[in-house]
């Protein structure tokens, strides 16, 4: 027999595709949640894990998965993300060799692809860190604020105007929950399909303040069922932002391409990768043939 000692398991691209497939299959099976998919909240987990990055100090970002711990798990912006972390736990049990920080970002990439979005080339290399690496509260954006705040927060991560607008286009997915952020409702009629609808509606609909007892938000005049956050409205109030809103609202291919590039960049902020090779995962649909 083979008497050589077993080294540490070194995963191949095929192994990561297996993790992708397991997440995709769980997404397809666990439909008794929200609008029928955990995809949107997985995207938000990947974003909130990554969006704590500070380019000046090199702290935060997806490396570390420090949202596993209080105080970061209890930061107001992260309310509700336990649903996404718990959703991924059986995958972690099945593939114990993957770090939480790789798994959470892979989960976001998988959700975007499985919900009909662009390919998100992804690479491994994140290592989990302990509670001492938790970032301070206040690094993620506040939905009640305007364009100045958006520029402050996203330029701290190293993004320009165009990239900021593209990233916020993820609001095509999912919804606001009164028991999480206090805000309420989805941004469009198909919240489990990745699309440029957020931008088209933002540019074309008339948005009016919602009359209710909750936090200040907007609703579409036509149906009164959709929503925009004050920070979303800032994207059409600011001329430099609005230019990109209109571009993306008119051309889905341009949005998909630019979103993919900037989401890849988001998930990689501050990560000391050892490889330049990214994996383009095959979706469950292409594999069915
Ligand atoms: Fe967001 N987002 N987001 N967002 N976000 C919320 C939900 C979702 C802001 C506030 C909120 C991005 C940018 C911003 C997603 C992805 C992304 C909710 C509702 C609030 C509030 C939470 C709840 O009640 O459950 C603000 C402010 C900004 C900003 O940039 C100014 C970005 C960049 C992304 C991204 O993914 C790249 C997704 C997906 C959701 C839906 C979650 C769900 O459970 O459904």
Give the low-confidence spans: none
Quick one: overall form? globular
Number of strands: 5
Q: Taking Cα atoms only, what radius of gyration do you get, to the nearest Å?
A: 19 Å
Percent of residues in beta strands: under 5%
**Cofactors and ligands:** ligand DDH
H and E string = HHHHHHEEHEEEHHHH
- How many helices? 11
Ends apart, CA distance between termini: 40 Å
Structural class: mainly alpha
Quaternary structure state of the chains depicted? single chain
Cross-sheet strand order for the largest sheet: 3-4-5
Element layout with pairings:
Elements: H1 13-29, H2 39-50, H3 82-94, H4 100-114, H5 147-157, H6 161-168, E1 175-176, E2 185-186, H7 197-204, E3 207-209, E4 218-220, E5 227-228, H8 230-237, H9 239-250, H10 252-268, H11 284-288
Antiparallel strand pairs: 1-2, 3-4, 4-5
Helix pairs in contact: 1-4, 2-4, 3-4, 6-9, 7-9, 8-9, 9-10
The chain binds ligand DDH.
Ligand DDH binds at residues 40-41, 43-44, 47, 80, 141-143, 150, 167-168, 170-171, 173-177, 180-181, 183, 229, 231.
């Amino acid at each position: 027999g083979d008497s050589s000692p077993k080294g540490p398991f070194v995963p191949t691209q095929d192994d990561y595709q297996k993790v992708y497939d397991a997440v995709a299959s769980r997404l397809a099976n666990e439909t008794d949640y929200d609008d029928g998919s955990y995809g949107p909240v997985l995207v938000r987990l990947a974003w909130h894990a990554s969006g704590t990055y500070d380019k000046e100090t090199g702290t935060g970002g997806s490396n570390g998965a420090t949202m596993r711990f209080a105080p970061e798990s209890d930061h107001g912006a992260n309310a509700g993300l336990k649903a996404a972390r718990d959703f991924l736990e059986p995958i972690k049990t099945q593939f114990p060799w993957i770090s939480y920080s790789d798994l959470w970002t892979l989960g976001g990439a998988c959700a975007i692809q499985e919900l009909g979005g662009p390919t998100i080339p992804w690479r491994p290399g994140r290592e989990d860190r302990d509670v001492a690496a938790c970032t301070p509260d206040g690094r993620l954006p506040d939905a009640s604020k305007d364009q100045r705040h958006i520029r402050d927060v996203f330029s701290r991560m190293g993004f320009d105007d165009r990239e900021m607008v593209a990233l916020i286009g993820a609001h095509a997915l999912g919804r606001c929950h009164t028991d999480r952020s206090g805000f309420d409702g989805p941004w469009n009629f198909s919240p489990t399909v990745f699309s440029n609808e957020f931008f088209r509606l933002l540019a074309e609909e008339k948005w009016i303040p919602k009359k209710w007892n909750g936090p200040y938000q907007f609703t579409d005049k036509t149906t009164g069922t959709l929503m925009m956050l004050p920070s979303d409205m800032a994207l059409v109030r600011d001329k430099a932002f609005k230019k990109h809103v209109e571009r993306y609202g008119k051309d889905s291919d341009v949005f998909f391409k630019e979103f993919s590039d900037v989401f890849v960049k988001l998930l990689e902020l501050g990560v000391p990768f050892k490889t330049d090779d990214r994996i383009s995962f095959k979706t469950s649909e292409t594999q069915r043939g």
